[in-house]
Amino acid sequence: MACLPSLSLAATVGLDPSSLRSRVSGHVSPLAVEKPPGICCGTNNASASPTATLEVESLDFREGLSVLEDGTGLGPFDYVPLLQECMERRLVSDAEAVHAHIIKTGAREDLYVMTFLVNVYAQCGAMIAARKVFDGLPRRNVVTWTTLITGYVHNSEPELAIRVYLEMLEAGSYPTNYTLGIALNACSSLRSLELGKQIHAYIVKYRIEQDASIGNALCSLYSKFGNLDYAVKTFRGITEKNVISWTAIISACSENGEAASGLSFFSEMLWENVEPNEFTLTCVLSLCCTVMSLSLGKQVHSLSIKSGYQLNLPVRNSAMYLYLKCGLVDEAYKLFNEIESSSLVTWNAIIAGHVQIMDFASDNLSAYQGGTRALEIFLRMIHSGLKPDLFTFSSVLTLCSKLVAQEQGEQIHAQTIKTGCLSDVVVGSALVNMYSKCGSIRRASKAFVEMSTRTLISWTTMITNFAIHGKTQQALQLFEDMRLVGVKPNQITFVGVLAACGRSLMVDEALNYFEMMQKEYRIKPVMDHFELLVDMFVMSGRIDEAFDLIKKMHYEPNEFIWSALITGARLHRNPELGLYAAERLIKLEPRDSETCVPLLKMYRAVERWIDMLNVEKLMRELQPVKLRDWSWICIKGKVYSFEPNEQFCPGNNMEMHMLLEDLLGRAKTLGYEFSGSSELMDNEDANISSRIHQSEEFAIAFGLLNTPKAAPIQIIKNTSMCQNCHDFIKCLSILTARKIVIQDRKRLHKFVDGKCSCGDFWGLL
DNA sequence: CTAGGGTTAG
Q1: pLDDT in tens, A276-309
Q2: Signal peptide position in this chain (predicted)?
Q3: A229, A230, A434, A545: which has the highest count of C-beta atoms within 10 A?
Q4: Threshold 0.85, pTM exceeds
Q5: Strand duo A740-743 + A748-752: pairing
Q6: Which one of 1.25.40, 3.30.450, 1.20.58, 3.40.50 gives the CATH number of domain A9-251?
Q7: Which residue, counting CA atoms, is nearest to the C1' of nucleotide B6?
Q8: Stated in angstroms, how far is A307 CA from B1 C1'?
Q9: How far, in Å, is the CA of A137 from the C1' of nucleotide B7?
């Protein structure tokens, strides 16, 4: 067989395993038994001591070279320290300098040195140079071949790696366990299970699965193909498990969403007295982060310091990320600032961490402050000359969606196009979400249509966002499209679908989908689904059905559900049900002051004054954390925050007040009426004759004064809007001819020409 | 042969 198989994937997959086997018949022993001394350590002249030569290690690299210049009659091993230095510095120019020198002194006759050189070029990412050196060699051994294959795998060229692997067999070299390991790795990068299986068959035939190098590679191969059971089986079969075996199985668990199993493998590993290395620790720290176990994470972190890995970058990145996500922000910053040569991953981690804790910060205020900080960090990162990648873009787009920062989001959109990152599904999905959350459903759906591939999350994002914008038909249509394409919806998809139905009070459809979710897709309903359905029943005046559903839940209903039922009971004059629900709500010790408002209204309606006083007392206790009303606006990458009746605004206070008073006057001519404070929590101020400005009104005024004419005004608010402001802002959208977008606690409001996209449920409540 | 950072809801 003179010619090599073609490079195409089809051809490599179609490779006949017998062709592999035939080459080794009669040669089982070297394959199964012989362990090569290593890829970059010597195979020949192993007795010669590579380090006992010139003392170049203490010298500067260039000086080292010049020492060599002066020397005469150098042996090949004189190059070893220099080549080692090259490996660490990873500079092609260094490698070239040494290479030239090697040619000059004739050391190129030495296979060990030349193999090392191939490895150096490969580590520098210079695969063309590596290949050239390789091709120029008069002879090669299996280590040389394996080195080249490894280089291709590490430089993301698995097709070439496989091709070289086949060339090697062709040339009559027998793979070692290392060669097979890296070849398996190439298969997993290629997503070629077929070829992997062929190599596996070969491995099984020669009974070398128990070998650590091969077993480890198999373990991670199965893991990458989502078969954790096989990975575990392979791991268990390895006779002499090393640290790498343990790390491989732990990371396999991590990869397949089995964080808890990963952690138990880790503890088993410690029981077996196997010492974790920096790879293990990094992976375990990330598992602690997944399960949000700060206490375990702290222990693992101190273990890594004790083991001498405190300076290892991945370890530090993981620890930093863990502390940030568990709320130890100062601790995380300490690590961040101490990292000297921070990598892109470091920056990505601190940005992503901030974005994620926005969801579960103890109060909204600190969440948005965290978001502000993340935006600053991102801008600082750009300023320092680092190039953002897929990870950065997806996090920052999500950040923009949470900050309702469209201007910033648009700039990032442009960047993703320029860098080619937009073709990534995750980035694409994040972009869709960003435009929608900034109030532009049109651009969101354009971005969605332009995606070349879509995942479950992409579809879910778009469906949910149609629902948020009140586009029920589009949401449901898209859901059907998604099913047609064969993508299986998940729990969250149905949250979007039910929300879409709820928005249009399509009760029957909602119930159909609810049933479909359970019967056809075997998805257990969670609290979110019940909340949406109860809400829909209440809005439709079907209180009894709401209560029936609550009784059927196999969860303890939460405060939002009782609160919705209370509202329904009050509106539809069912005091008994209302009082019952109130009792249940109070038992839950509501942590959210907004759920108490319906409670107060109901007690007042049935004249239960003592109960009312008690609830008010309860609310006063909650007040400091929850009731403070804040709004934010993001302009040119800066976030400005506002409180009600702002005394010290970031802008010109007087100008903002005057503008608001003027607008208020003109709104009245449009029929706006101030109906007293509808917020019961502001009861003290309810009698004050002058109108109180809520925080979002200041934010709008600031936006009007500081953005170009006709630019949309985009705001976030940590509490729910009151009806008063809602009416007023409808007028503002006419008076100022601007689109005004407000993301409040509960929903997205998009005010255009006096109308809001939220569907105006206010009248009902 | 083994490691760190990303997207959807509430």
Answers
A1: 999 999 999 999 999 999 999 999 999 999 999 9
A2: none
A3: A434
A4: no
A5: antiparallel
A6: 1.25.40
A7: A391
A8: 22
A9: 48
